[in-house]
Amino acid sequence: MADRKISIIDAHTHFFSHSWLSSFQEAVKERFATVEQVAEHLGWDAPPSNPVEFGGKWVAEQDKHGVAKQVLFASKINDAEFLAAAISEHRSRLVGYFMVNPKEPDARNRVVYSLNILDMKGILLFPAMHHFNASDACAYTIYEEAVSAGVPVFIHFGRLNIPIYEKLGIAHSIDLSYSNPMDLAGPATDFQEANFIIPHFGSGRFEEALTIAGRFPNVYFDTSSSNSWIAPPLTLGTVFEKALQVLGPERLLFGTDSSTFPRGWRHDIYEQQLGILNELRVSEEDQAAILGGNIARILDLT
Q1: The pTM is what?
Q2: 254 closest CA partner among 279, 272, 238
Q3: What is the DSSP string of 194-236?
Q4: What residues contact 208, with CB distance under 8 A and at least 6 apart?
Q5: Bridge partner residues of 72 (DSSP)
Q6: How confident is the model over 134-172, as pLDDT tens digits?
Q7: Which of 68, 72, 74 is nearest to 23 (CA)?
Q8: What is the pLDDT of residues 85-97, one digit of tens each?
Q9: What are phi and psi of 214, to 5 degrees?
Q10: Which of 62, 233, 257, 280 could cross-link to 224 by cystine, CB 3.0-4.6 Å?
C-alpha cells in the first residue's frame, strides 16, 4: 500500500474502455467476434461496457493501494465521452485528458467541446502517430486553446510502442521522425503560459528532452511506465538523478502508465520509483511534490 502520509496522484494512466477496445475488435472481426474474445486473447479482463462501472474499478484500485487520485487518458479519438461519464460519478478521484489529432479539420471544435462540455483537464498529442511537428500551425491551434482553458499539453516524443497493434497483427503508421523533443522549442517559447508534459523522460530521447527542459521552465517530465528504453550506461536511478538536477523536484510528475485489468494499478512501478527517490535522498517534501503535489498544482486539484 502506498504511503498514506503522502497524497499519491498518478499523473499517467489509461482508460482503455470497452469503446476503445471495440475499435480494435472491428479491425480483427474476422478472427474475433466480440470485445470479450479480443480481451481474452490479450490476457486482459474485458472492460465493462458501462464506463461508470469501469471508473469504479479504478477507484477500487486506488482504495486498495492508498492512491488519492489518478489522471486517466482517453486513448482514442472520440473516446472522451466515455471517460467523462466515468468521471461524472467519481469526480473526486478521477481526472481526464483527451487525445486530439490537430490535423483534423474539426480539431479546434473538438478541443473546445472536450474542455468546456466534457470537463477534460488536459490535452494529449502524439506527433509520431498523427504525423505532425510540434511547431506546426495546426498544433499551435491546440496550444492556443490550452492556454485559454489553463490546461496542460501532454506531448509524446521519443519511442512510441503500442503493443496491442503487434499482439493483434494490426499495421500502424508511427513515424518517429516527428518524435524529437527539440521540436518543442518553438511552442515552449511562444506559449510560455502553457505547461508541456513530456512522458517517460523523453522515451529514448532523454538528452534532447533534458536540453529542452533546461531551457524552458514550462516543460515537465512524467516518470511513467517501466521506462524500457533505458540502456547501459543509463539506469532509471541515473535518469532520475539527472532529471532532478535539471528540472528540480517541482517539474517531475509521478506516473505508472497503468492501463488494464487484472494487472490494475502498477504498484510495482510505484515501489521502484519510491525506492530510487529514497536512494537519492530526496526529501519527504520533494517526494510529496513529485508523487502528487506537482500535478495537483498544475491541474488546480483540491
Answers
A1: 0.96
A2: 272
A3: S-EEEGGGGTT-HHHHHHHHHH-TTEEEE--S--TT--TT--H
A4: 157, 180, 181, 182, 202
A5: 13, 96
A6: 999 999 999 999 999 999 999 999 999 889 999 999 988
A7: 74
A8: 999 999 999 999 9
A9: -70, -30
A10: 257
